[in-house]
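Sequence in, structure out. Go.
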Amino acid sequence: MAIRNSTLKSTATIHATDADEIVTKPVRVKSHNQTASDAGVWTASLFLAFVACLMPAWFLGVGVSFGSSEVASTTMQPARIVLLGLGSVAIWFGMRVSLILAKAPRIKGKKHSSMLRWLWLFTAPLSVLFLLRFVYNSSDIAHDPLAYLGAVAPALLMAELSFALPAIGKHRYGTDIGAWGGMIWSAVGANTVMLWAIPSIWWMPCVLAVAGSMCTAAAAVRIWRHYEGRIVTVC
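Output:
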């Protein structure tokens, strides 16, 4: 009987010790910043700065294509091809960045996240549509409504990306400049449509795109520098 009681006490002690270990064992929970870092959100924000700097090439190519006959002459054809090619690269990277930024913890499941996904879905076919109209209807593209629809889509994507940056950065660290970029990119889209009626302002979308890219790139770099730097310091 004494041996049995001793065995029971020893078993109880072991279970109690195991329970203490289970309770006191620290559980590491990833922060929002670490989760976003693992998902590539902060790195994507740095690539967004690159996209923003390259995107004006698309709107300069669009402006030249929609401009007056003197501007859109055959001698400008190689320049338009180069500009639209660079712009297409920017659009492709911008679409990839939009999918990654849509996973940012502070906007995941919210309006900005869903808008980025929807605009990603529409930007790809619409931009390809513009390129197809440019190839097969280059001489009369200034009067092609489908071409205008395709030309505006990247501006809408960049506007939403810019508007999302302050929310991702909790409206701190100077990221509110991204909202200014969003408004400027919206104006880029509006001015692109206006080329239908006023082709002489073919240069305006590119000028506005440069201003928008500066605001977007500034906000994106600030997000990357603050959050990714903090993650590296903690690790």
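Check: Residues 33-234 form one domain. The first helix runs from residue 2 to 24.
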